[in-house]
Automatic annotation (TrEMBL):
Residues 11-370 form the FMN hydroxy acid dehydrogenase domain. Glyoxylate binds at residues 37, 182, 268, 271. Its cofactor is FMN. Belongs to the FMN-dependent alpha-hydroxy acid dehydrogenase family. It comes from the Bacteria. This is Alpha-hydroxy-acid oxidizing protein. FMN binds at residues 90-92, 119, 145, 173, 244, 266, 299-303, 322-323. The active site is at residue 268. One of its GO terms (molecular function) is FMN binding. Keywords: Flavoprotein, FMN, Oxidoreductase.
Length: 370
């Protein structure tokens, strides 16, 4: 069995029927600065808003009088059958939302058969999180998210730890080699408490700057990886690699050529470059370009079962949720996160039933014109 972890048993507050209810309740539990960190986007928040609007704008087309007693939400992903297509996205500093942090969200994911991606900026050692869920019978996939740097010794060492701990894939995030402006969080005076991230790779060391040089280019971008580093990583580990933060079809194709096993179509929940397309808009061109060679996952603004169904109907294999897990965590620790996942699963089942969709690999039939 996994190492026993002792989690707080917070009761589930009354009146939480949707993810929006969780959001409103979490707002009242977190202070302004912490809220700005978790819920804000970058700069003007244009992509943050666009993510949600784009899912809402897409229409579903109901089909009636179909027999659906054999319907289910199961999917195949990277060689495994999963009970449903919802995963928890890597989200940093979860202990700011609840003392149990990642241990709680990992437990909740395991209990709900949801995939779990541990952020490289977690407040719990990666081996501790893995040991707490690894042997749970119904759990979904357990993946580790890393930010690659060019320092190959550091990456090699990290990958060895991740493999030894039993993680089943690496999620390599490539859309945030420098932090985008975080207006809300700056105005709210948010500061990351020291010592909160225990698995973190240190930020690139300051470099002497000549006139005309900048930290952005000569420090952060100089330490950031490029395609050759991804090729090197591919040759270094046998773990499946998912590339997270791809929006351009040519980047998607390049990644497939390098040998990644899956792509996460993501704009970092509107926290990286602002004004980039909503993920619902970025997904279809990538689906066409990749043409089924690797599975595609998508995140950003997924808040309803209908959003999940639409993402899959557009060609994604699975979806991830970021902020909603934080809301559940703030509201009731592990139970709150499990509740968020369960609500989304219930809504997905209802959306499938009412659109006449028996299996998610037939979800495209739920779109108008199918
Ligand atoms: C993130 N995200 C993120 N991504 C990543 O690869 N590594 C990380 O450490 C983090 N940290 C993080 C913190 C917070 C507070 C948020 C909100 C997001 C991005 C995350 O994995 C995911 O792409 C988005 O959160 C998905 O959008 P929604 O569901 O939050 O709208």
């Amino acid at each position: 069995m996994g190492r026993a972890v002792s989690l707080r048993r917070d009761p589930l507050p009354a009146g939480l029927h949707t993810l929006a209810d969780h959001e409103a309740h979490a707002r009242s539990r977190l202070d302004d600065a912490t809220w700005a960190y978790f819920n804000g986007g970058s700069a003007d928040g244009i992509t943050l808003a666009a993510n949600r609007e784009a899912w809402g704008r897409l229409a579903l087309m109901p089909r009636v009088l179909r027999r659906l007693e054999h319907a289910h939400t199961r999917i195949q992903l990277l060689g495994r059958e999963l009970a449903h297509p919802i995963l928890l996205a890597p989200v940093a500093y979860q202990r700011l939302a609840h003392p149990d942090g990642e241990l709680a969200s990992a437990q909740a994911a395991a209990a709900q058969g949801a995939g779990f991606v541990l952020s490289s900026l977690a407040g719990t050692p990666l081996a501790t999180v893995a040991a707490s869920v690894r042997h749970q019978p119904e759990r979904g996939p357990l993946w580790f998210q890393m930010v690659m740097q060019r320092d190959r010794d550091a990456v090699r060492e990290r990958v060895a730890q991740v493999e030894a701990a039993g993680y089943e894939a690496l999620v390599v995030t490539v859309d945030a080699p420098v932090q985008a402006p975080r207006d809300l969080q700056w105005r709210a005076g948010f500061r990351i408490p020291p010592g909160l991230a225990v698995n973190e790779q240190p930020a690139p060391a300051p470099v002497p700057l000549a006139p005309g040089d900048s930290d952005v280019f000569q420090r952060f971008m100089a330490a950031a990886p490029d395609w050759s580093d991804l090729e090197w990583l591919r040759a270094t580990t046998r773990l499946p690699i998912l590339l997270k933060g791809v929006l351009h079809p040519q980047d998607a194709l390049h990644a497939v050529e390098v040998g990644v096993d899956a792509l996460v179509i993501s704009n970092h929940g509107g926290r990286a470059l602002d004004t980039v397309p909503a993920t619902a808009a970025a997904l279809p061109p990538i689906v066409r370009a990749v043409a089924g060679r690797v599975p595609l996952l998508v995140d950003g603004g997924i808040r309803r079962g209908t959003d999940v169904l639409k993402a899959i109907a557009l060609g994604a294999h699975a979806v991830l949720i970021g902020r909603p897990l934080v809301w559940g965590l703030a509201n009731a620790g592990a139970l709150g996160v499990a509740h968020v996942i369960r609500l989304l699963r219930d809504e997905l089942e209802i959306a499938m039933a009412l659109s006449g969709c028996e299996r998610l690999d037939q979800a495209a039939s739920a779109l108008p014109g199918a």
